[in-house]
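Reopening this ticket.

The earlier resolution said the output was attached, but the attachment link was broken on my side. Pasting everything inline this time so it's all in one place.
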Amino acid sequence: MGARKRIAAEQRKAAKKTQYFAKLVNVPSSPRKMRYVVDLIRGMEVNRALGTLQFSKKAASADVEKLLRSAIANWEQKNERKAEDGELFVTKAYVDEGVTLKRMRPAPQGRGYRIRKRSNHVTLFVGTQTND
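Inline output:
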């Protein structure tokens, strides 16, 4: 590895220490359904976001709620203290497309229709309002 790449890698590693996030990979639901839930909480204060997710009717909200609690715990672990009310916010949240499983369903006249079973990856960043 060249010197320039090593320096860039060290800078990325140092920047990652000040970011507080949690990832959820290979969630067996379509990214479109998950984005709907994640869009609800982006930019919210974490306690309000947890309340929103808890009372949401969407099935994906249970996964996102667990992920948000994990991100909060990561923040508390790195800062070695509990988060105060109104201190933490969901700074960034995004959903990426995961692996798509391709399956065949029998169709009339000997044909087969393709079924795509989609999955997604969710990433949530939490931080203080000034620390965007």
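Reporter confirms the inline version is readable. The chain has one domain: 19-128. The chain has four helices and five strands.
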